[in-house]
Structures are given as structure tokens and as C-alpha cells.
# Entry
Amino acid sequence: MGAIVILGAQFGDEGKGKISDVLAKDAHVVARFQGGGNAGHTLVIGDRTIALHLLPSGICHEDKMNIVGPGVVCDLEVLVQELALAREFGSRVLLDEQTPIVLPIHRMMDAVREVALGARAIGSTKRGIGPAYSDFWLRRSVTLGDLRSADSVRAVLTRGRYMEEMFGAWSLVRGEQIRIEQVDVRVHPMHLDDTIDLLMSFADRVVPHIGDTRACVHRALDDGKNVLFEGAQGVMLDAYHGSRPFVTSSLCTSAGVSATFGVHTFDRVIGVAKAYPTRVGAGPFPTELQDERGEELRRRGHEFGTTTGRPRRCGYLDLPALRQARRVSGIEEFVITKLDILTDLEDLFVCDHYIDVDDYTTLTCSVLENAKPHLLRMPGWNEDLSNCRHYKELPAAARAYIELIEKQTGTVVSGIGVGAERNQILWR
# Structure
């Protein structure tokens, strides 16, 4: 198994958590390398549905080492809830001391900025992720390691008059004809002492888990152990390769593993994609279905955001986007999830290229906004896929759908999801 990277190959919500959960069974270490509480991985374990936002999916396996790396931004309230879940499953957790903390003021600024953007709002989850990453790059984040003492937290928050600047910006934003009633958040901005008290209230539960995550990963790899790197969001939302500005604030490709853990060689890079793409929030979506067919996919697939509950936009499978995801991420194999959702649909269409767009064109926001998809009609199937356990058991039309993906992307499809349970993945 060695070093494996699991990435979202579309706009997120592809089912990465389920694939990570299944592969974690054979891993010694499972590491989350980017994103924050804006991610949502839903796992179905028996009759229990579990939603994770920060800790990797390996926490649902006994005695696994689960790591949160320095490229993640942590909401402490979410973190302590998931630490309790890890204890329930008998799983271990190691947190990087340099992991930035999402502050209450980050959440408020995130929400107010969305309101200010109006019709051009990005579609943020309002979890404070963008502002927290901004402070990381400005070298002024409060980190998990700072929770070892209130004095350390105070020193960071007062360095360079940080809190004064943040509250000054907050006051200016509020003055820009934005009514606070428009901002749907539960946490109000706090003054310095209040912020310190809030952060330190989590210290006893967080600090015991802090350690050298990067040393742990490299030691495991040198000892021949299996390490699984779990990504959040998707390549089409990557800060560099996505449709800026409608992107997340972190590195969603395998480069994110290299940047945060210093690992540059991988045994497998797996791109997870749904049999039909979805997107939450704003931004271009060339194959989007804004009619009853899109509604039907949303209903069948229960396409509502794990983190926010927002309805996901649904569309036809976009092969040019998958080809870009493969190129920029080093994806060597795809896992296609939710193939079962397409059963009994009258018409199946796939976008094989964009009209008058070269296949190597970088899919920037302006390109996607103007892209005209060329659609191939595919035969559908009526057979129930949920009980299939081997590829040959799939109906011929379903196999043709998978084989078209392989041919058009030049990439093998190594796994196929035909249901929500752990055992409903066909491995080839």
C-alpha cells in the first residue's frame, strides 16, 4: 500500500470520506492535509451515519493513528467533538502544533464579506476558513501549539496590534450599509480577553494530542508502514487550479501533501469522482442541469451539503474537468462513486469536450463560464446495482459508462461505488 493520496477530482462532495474509510482498514497512519470545518465527509457504518469535518476518516477504525497536519485550519469546537468520537472508536489522534485556529472574528468576517459581495458571493460556508488562511499567510495565526499557555495566545493576538486591526476592519465593514441581521452566524466578535478565555477553554482537551506530525509520517514511511493522505474539497476548487475566485483557500491536489508534510513520492494517487458532478455555492458549472433532471438527481442522490445542508447543483459527467484534474494532480486511478444513482434514468449524457476549447486549456473561471459542452448520449440501464460485488455483475450499459471514462481520461477506474455501505464498492 505505501503512501496513498485520496483527492476529490471534481467540485468536492465526491465521496472521498467513504473511500478513505475503506482504505484506512489497511493503513497504519491516516493524515488530513488541507481544508477545515468547511469540509464534510459522510460515513455510513452499519445503521449509523457519521459526518466528519476535521479529523480523517480513519478515526472510525480502532487503534489507527490519525493526523491533522499544518495545512488544516481548526475550529476548536468541531475538533473536540471529533476527538470524543475518536475515543469512542478507540482511535488515536495526533495534531500538528503549527495548525492554525479559526477564531470567532474569522467567522464573522467571512459571513459579512459574503453579504457584501451580493450577487457575486463565492458561496462560502461562513465557517471562517478563508480569513483563517489569510492570517496564516500573513504569519499571524494563533496555532494549536499556542494553547499550551494563555500568555502565548495573548502574545500572538496582540503582536502588531492584530486584534485592533481586526476589530477596526470589522467596524468598517459594518459601516458599509450591511445590516448585521443579514449575517447568519452564531458567534459574535469577541474582545481580546474573551477570545483568550474561549480558546483556553479547549486547551485541556486539545494539548495532549499535539505532537510532531511530520516526523510521525516520515518515520512510518521509512519503516515500511502504510500512510493514507486524505484530502478535502476537490481539484476544481483548488486555490491555484480551480475556477478562482469561486474556490477554497487551500491546496486540493497532491501538491498539498508535498507542501504540508514534505512527502513527494506516492505509491497511489486516487481521484474520487461521482458518476455525475455536483457543486455547492456559486461559480461556473458547464454541465449543470437547471431543470427537472437536475432535481431528480438531487433527490435520488440526497445531494445536500454535509456541512451546511445547502442543496447541491447537479449536472452531467464532465470529462474535460476530469482530464484537467488528472493532469494537475498526478491522479493515476479514479474511483467512481454513486453509479447506482443513474439507474432507471431515461437519458444519460456525458460531456466529452467543450466546443472550440483546446483540451489542454486551463479551466479558469472565464473559460468555464463560456464553455459550451458537447454531449454524448449513452445507453441507460434498469437493473439494480446495489447488490453487485464484482465488475462483471454490472449491466453492460453501466460497464460501458465506466469504460468511456477510462478511454476519455486515459486513466483506469479501480473502484466503483454502488451504494452507501462500506461493502458497496467494487474493486477491480
User: Anything to note?
Assistant: Confidence is low (pLDDT under 50) at residues 176-187.
